[in-house]
Amino acid sequence: MTTTTETPNAQPAAARKATEKTLTGVQKLPMAKAINLGLRRALERDAKTLLMGEDIGQLGGVFRVTDGLQRDFGADRVVDTPLAESGIVGTAIGLALRGYRPVLEIQFDGFIFPAFDQITTQLSKMHYRSRGRLTLPVVIRVPFGGGIGAVEHHSESPEVLFAHTAGLRVVSPSTPAEAFTMIQQAIASPDPVLFFEPKGRYWEKGEVDLDAPLADPHTPDGLGLDKARVVRSGTDVTLVAHGPTVATALKAAEAAATDGTSVEVVDLRTLSPLDTATIAESVRRTRRCIVIHEAPVLYGTGAEVAARITEECFFHLEAPVLRVGGFHMPYPVAKLEHEYLPGLDRVLDAIDRSLAF
Amino acid sequence: MSPTGPLTDDGLVRLLTHTGERVSHPEYDRYVDHLDDHALLGLLRDMVIVRRFDTEATSLQRQGELALFAQGLGQEAAQVGSGRALAPQDHVFPSYREHGVAHVRGVDLTDVLRLFRGVDHGGWDSAAHRFHLYTLVIGSHTLHATGYAMGVQRDGDVGTGDPTRDTAVITYFGDGATSQGDVNEALVFAAVNNAPVVLFCQNNQWAISEPTTRQARVPLADRGPGFGVPSVRVDGNDVLATYAVTTQALERARSGGGPTFIEAFTYRMGAHTTSDDPSRYRSSAEEEYWRQRDPIDRLGTYLQLRGAVTPEFLAGLEAEGEALGEHIRATVRTMGRPSTASMFEHVYATPHSVVESERAWFERYEASFLDAGEGSHR
Ligand SMILES: Cc1ncc(C[n+]2csc(CCOP(=O)(O)OP(=O)(O)O)c2C)c(N)n1
Questions:
Q1: How far is residue B213's CA from residue A3's CA, in Å, rounded to a whole number?
Q2: What region holds the Dehydrogenase E1 component domain (chain B) (predicted)?
């Protein structure tokens, strides 16, 4: 019978696509490709960087984010792992202790839970427990969120479960350009980073400066992994979003502008740490704040932002901080996901409610 | 070069060669000897019907009627053989590709498509069919099956000698799943509790793009003994053999003899799901090798050689397939969008104030569009 080789070998250099290696300048790229190029840069930069995950090799991942990387870097650097999430994270911890920088792919958001134990009880705590002697530079890439019409467990938004755990950094890019930079910063970070990729936006294109210098991931003033970003200025209300809902917020801002409402949009970029200063500065100007996310509202990001903004900006607020998000239910069937997801209408409704105070 | 490790076919229990000849096996003949032409034709019918279901569902997905579909193509013998070995009181904990087992448990296969169409998370009455809901998180249900079996054991429904009472549990999973902690924990619990459970691994050679060699260095059946669970390797494309080994394992479970691990060595002839592109990772030579070992052809040839196949049977089967196809196409197309209100139902068994307030808010919100007499912005 025919057999498959045990480890797919890297193909000869001649077979590589030269284009990907030589891409420079500003390019219009989909987010999946931007992450792919960011990973490629990181693999080129540091021989200790490894990619690990299910189907990331020959297949290039189910979303093709790692397409071509095993071909170019070999099966030792881009590793198809056994089908075992706890094993993937647990062995990455060991590799990191040995000086490697593992970048893991969890195939879908709903499948991170077999690894929840390793992430929350081990990965997050080792630096603290060792009083700083040990660092675990592990990145866990998670395609998250809805909007792709999938079956259950393929559209979850578990980011807060990790943001709630001390010792982990939790970030989420909203555009191809951010994705390209942030994935490299995440890999450069000595802390473990949960990197939540908005899978519903993987195929949306945006301009990416492939020559952009990489700010230190944790510089306080550069746009590292600590900072929120005002992505649209406005004067009447601040929309706060991250990952997939940033585009929704921008669309709502456009729509509201036609009614004469000026909306500012803040992209959180990072949930842990949370850049309260940038949000508060915006809210002090607009006096109104609405937080949007796909995850359920109960105990979600919106709750955290609302509490902090209430503390920081109480005397500036003209309206309570409102939240627009998913409902307290298991992610519904695909045919109902657009009712579940906080879409344009629900955001506009919240803008109206905020302005009505 | 003959393959080694998990890809070897050493030690496979086989009762039919791939060219349709019956070969005898000292241990397993007795489990199939009583099957007459009628029973054998029944197995053929099941496999043909299930394949027809697969074909219809795959084309419905291509037409945009289903969001996704996971084919069972090529695995009919593993599923029908093991499924037909079950007693009515036995319980099944499937993964997501066990349409053949669903069929023999009497599940209307269009109910399975409710899941893949995205109108339901389940779709069938799992208690009525003793066929549990599909599980998409790899391996987690093997623990549920083991726990269920521990319950059966506590209830005294094993080893009574009453064939209508003694109960076994079977759980299905893939070769990739054997790497999961949960499956290994299921083996531990099954072993130490002597639980009446059969762990049925369909080694279809691939876990999406990863060959079995990325999960193991040894035949998967070798895992059982390390946990203290007896194991069998069976030719998964031989419906007689899968029927025989499963019958034996279920009998062991029902009589109080404890768990069995079965590795059914088979092949996923289709894509992993309709979103997958197998040409990226496997060769057409490999696919051709397995096409020659097609489970339906194998039993069909054997029955032809026996002279058991009549033109009437074939005509009946054709008609049955047509009727099923029509039933599937018609039923799936009419599966409408569930009501929005249904999203809020069954989150909890008892009222929950957060869900209630969100439901009420959503009703007011939806009504506001009607009041305003405008369509939605979407
Ligand atoms: C815990 C978990 N991780 C990852 C996935 C994504 N996934 C779905 S099917 C699959 C491969 C499963 O292979 P196998 O167990 O051999 O079963 P088969 O699909 O071949 O029947 C993967 C990786 C998942 N469903 N659950």
A1: 9
A2: 46-320
For residue A221, the CA-to-ligand 1 centroid distance in Å is 43
User: Is domain A27-209 annotated with CATH 3.40.50.970?
Assistant: yes
Number of the ligand 1 atom closest to the C-alpha atom of B204? 20
**B365 near A CB under 8 A:** yes
List of residues 6+ apart from B124 with CB closer than 8 A = B102, B107, B108, B111, B112, B131, B133
Each residue's pLDDT tens digit in chain A (357 positions)? 334 333 344 444 444 455 566 789 999 999 999 999 999 999 999 999 999 999 999 999 999 999 999 999 999 999 999 999 999 999 999 999 999 999 999 999 999 999 999 999 999 999 999 999 999 999 999 999 999 999 999 999 999 999 999 999 999 999 999 999 999 999 999 999 999 999 999 999 999 999 988 877 777 666 789 999 999 999 999 999 999 999 999 999 999 999 999 999 999 999 999 999 999 999 999 999 999 999 999 999 999 999 999 999 999 999 999 999 999 999 999 999 999 999 999 999 999 999 999
The span from the CA of B226 to the CA of B183, in Å, is 13
Rounded to the nearest 10 degrees, the angle between the axes of helix B239-254 and helix B37-62 is 100
Domain boundaries along the sequence of chain A: 27-209, 229-356
Domain boundaries, chain B: 16-334, 340-374
What's the distance, CA B11 to chain centroid?
Answer: 23
Range B16-334 classified under CATH 3.30.420.40:
no
Question: Which DSSP letter does residue A138 get?
Answer: -
Active site residue A127: no
Residue of chain B whose Cα is closest to the Cα of A148: B67
Q: What is the dihedral of CA A56, A57, A60, A62, to 10 degrees?
A: -40
Cα(B177) to centroid(ligand 1), Å = 7
Residues 6+ apart with CB under 8 A from A241: A174, A248, A249, A265, A266, A267, A268, A291, A292, A293
Given the residues A127, A153, A154, A293, select the one marked as catalytic: A154
Q: Which ipTM did the prediction report? A: 0.93
Q: Supply the angle between the helices B76-84 and B239-254 in degrees, to the nearest 10.
A: 40
CB contact under 8 A, B378 and A345: yes
Specify the ligand 1 atom closest to the Cα of B268: 20
Written out in words, the top-level CATH class of the domain with range A229-356 is: alpha beta
Q: Where in A162-262 does DSSP place strands (E)?
A: 169-171, 193-198, 205-209, 229-232, 237-241
3-state secondary structure of A273: coil
A82 contacts on B by Cβ (under 8 Å)? 176, 179, 210, 214-215
Asked if the domains at A27-209 and A229-356 fall in one CATH topology, the answer is yes
